[in-house]
Write a structure and sequence with these properties.
Blueprint: E1 5-12, H1 16-27, E2 32-36, E3 50-54, H2 61-64, H3 68-72, E4 79-86, E5 89-94, H4 96-100, E6 103-108, H5 111-127, E7 132-135, E8 139-144, E9 150-155, E10 161-168, H6 175-179, E11 191-200, H7 203-209, E12 218-224, E13 232-238, E14 242-250, H8 251-257, H9 261-269, E15 284-293, H10 295-298, E16 304-305, E17 308-310, E18 319-321, E19 324-326, H11 328-347, H12 354-364, H13 367-371, H14 374-383, H15 386-397, H16 399-408, H17 411-416, H18 419-423, H19 429-443, E20 445-446, H20 458-464, E21 466-468, E22 476-478, H21 483-486, H22 488-492, E23 505-512, E24 515-522, H23 532-536, E25 539-541, E26 549-551
Parallel strand pairs: 1-2, 1-10, 2-7, 4-12, 10-17
Antiparallel strand pairs: 3-6, 4-5, 5-20, 8-9, 9-10, 11-14, 11-15, 12-13, 13-14, 16-17, 18-19, 21-26, 22-25, 23-24
Helix pairs in contact: 1-5, 1-11, 11-12, 15-16, 15-19
Length: about 550
């Protein structure tokens, strides 16, 4: 094998998982090179987003970066609510009990600010061990020896790099995890899609409208009929001087209902419930989207292959605990444990056992029990059958079911606040749509406010984003342009829509010699790199080269 530049450790991705891995490696004195494909860490990343520090976690982000909360976070989340919605009727539950369970603290974050701060810390730490951090570098695959074993990484911009260990923290669309055969994109039912608007709002206005002090923050969740029958819900988090407002839905449900993500977001933004917080002074700073793994189905039980260890979204480590979403904290824990596993395996003279030791640590520290709860596997075998869902929904919407909801009354809030129940909720229409709708209809109060929000059009949202297009090198290739193979992307893609000619995917009616055919065309220019189309359309998908493509200012 040809000799290449060598580092003891290469970390791909400078998000929270990669930063935690690099910081831990540096603490062990291990020479570490970090590769980040964005122009700056965070410029490619999107999150809702809340980052948690769990009391049971062996490592939290502030353990590794003591100034994190002061320098990189927005507001601490001190209040947590779920709004059950049916038309203009709403029943609100205080889910503080569920939010506080196993929680040391939880902060709202914006990824560009957070990740760029982490980048500066990591670059300093890794430079002291003979490594460093490079931005604008896309790791496009694994470097293998003549024997087929993993030896390092290949990139678009640099010669291949050898390493004794590679830690892949390159996100949900991880090309390294796919190259190793650890992850695929075959089943839309294994993924969520999140769409978000960052809404400009002065700090004093946030404090006034949400009844908060400067050191307080609120999280509001939304479920029910405002999203029709799409399985998922909405969120609103208070930042220092902005709001993060978005929706998260099961990707298979988006496809089945032919729902358009930007319209679902607008349904939330314009609901009269939000009029108490968002007025006619509405202004979006940024529109963004992200594919999210459902850890209950895809979290890798053995997230390693040879010298490759996989952490965070790349390993499917995103926990949907009912209305509580936890991903970044698990990425931090996994990154630190992966680095620790390598350092300890190396110290024992058996570095090739780092992957198995990493998987063992995830199990012994209880991380895998959170990501893939055993109770959910038992419930889903029965609870996620279509015939069972139909029976349960019919019962809930019947006179008897409605009487039961009224009889339970305030006890429903307590049930929703149960961590044990939240961990085993089946992924069906019942908990996302049917039950919250019935709760709102039977127990809710009518909202009398009128929304004056006028969201930007999809064209305006796309036009406000920043792109550096890699001209002549499209990162998506449409393999089959038939509507049957790729038509789902027209509605599921967050920058495409039926009848909209400015997005990535468009429908065309082609007539040839009296024959009529529905075809799909593709333009990668407005792509927000969420990866949705890689799952729902017949495409070949990879990330743009380093520094190219969309550049998020907020994330």
């Amino acid at each position: 094998m040809t000799e290449h530049e060598h580092y003891e450790a290469v970390v791909v991705g400078a998000g929270p998982g990669g930063a935690a891995a690099a910081a831990t490696l540096a603490r062990y004195g291990i020479e570490t090179l970090v590769l980040e494909r964005g122009v700056e860490a965070g410029s490619k990343n999107v999150s809702g987003g809340l980052i948690y520090a769990e009391q049971s976690a062996p490592v939290t982000v502030d353990d590794l970066f003591p100034d994190f909360r002061e320098e990189a976070a927005e507001r601490p989340v001190t209040r947590y609510y779920l709004h059950n919605v049916a038309g203009d009727r709403v029943e609100t539950f205080d889910l503080g009990r569920l939010h506080d369970h196993d929680t040391e603290w939880a902060d709202a974050v914006l990824r560009r600010k957070m990740d760029s701060w982490l980048e500066s810390q990591v670059h300093e730490m890794t430079s002291e061990t003979g490594g460093g951090l490079l931005t604008g570098i896309r790791a496009n695959g694994l470097l293998r020896g003549d024997d087929g074993e993993i030896r390092g990484v290949t990139t678009d911009e640099l010669d291949p790099i050898e390493a004794d260990v590679v830690i892949a923290a390159d996100g949900v669309a991880s090309e390294l995890a796919r190259d190793a055969g650890l992850m695929d994109w075959e089943d839309p039912g294994q993924w969520f899609q999140g769409v978000k608007a960052v809404v400009d709002m002065p700090a004093e206005t946030i404090n006034d409208r949400f009844a908060l002090s400067e050191d307080e923050g609120a999280a509001h969740l939304f479920s029910g009929d405002l999203f029709s029958d799409v399985r998922g819900g909405g969120f609103l988090y208070t930042n220092r001087d902005s709001l993060s407002v978005g929706t998260v839905f099961h990707l298979d449900s988006l496809v089945a209902e032919e729902a358009e993500p930007h319209q679902l977001l607008d349904a939330l933004l314009t609901h009269p419930l939000l009029a108490q917080w968002i007025g006619e002074d509405y202004r979006e700073r940024e529109y963004a989207a992200k594919l999210v793994p459902d850890s209950k189905k895809v979290a890798l039980r053995e997230p390693h292959a040879g010298r490759l260890l996989v952490v965070g979204d790349a390993a499917g480590q995103m926990q949907a605990q009912g209305p509580i979403i936890k991903g970044m904290n698990h990425a931090v824990t996994a990154g630190a444990l992966a680095a620790e596993a390598y350092a300890q395996a190396k110290g024992r003279g058996k570095p090739d056992r780092a992957g198995r030791l990493y998987a063992k640590k995830l199990r012994e520290e209880g991380v895998m029990d959170k990501l893939r709860p055993r109770g959910y596997d038992l419930v889903r075998t029965v609870g996620e059958r279509d015939d069972v869902t139909e029976v349960v929904d019919s019962l809930l919407t019947s006179r008897l079911g409605r009487l039961g909801v009224r009889a339970l009354g305030g006890n429903l809030e307590r049930l929703y606040g149960s961590p044990r129940l939240a961990a085993i909720v089946p992924d069906t229409r019942t908990p996302y749509v049917t039950l919250p709708t019935v709760i709102a209809e039977e127990l809710g109060t009518r909202v009398t406010e009128t929304s004056r929000v006028e969201p930007p059009s999809l064209e305006e949202r796309i036009g406000e984003l920043t792109y550096d297009t890699d001209v002549g090198n499209p990162h998506i290739v449409l393999v089959d342009d038939s509507y049957e193979a790729s038509g789902a992307a027209i509605t599921a893609c967050p920058v495409s829509a039926k009848g909209f000619g400015g997005g990535c995917y468009r429908e065309e009616l082609v007539r040839t010699n009296g024959h009529e055919e529905r075809l799909v065309s593709l333009d990668t220019q407005p792509c927000v790199e969420c990866g949705t189309c890689a799952v729902v359309a017949d495409t070949e998908w990879h990330h743009p080269s380093g520094g190219k493509g969309v550049v998020f200012d907020e994330g």
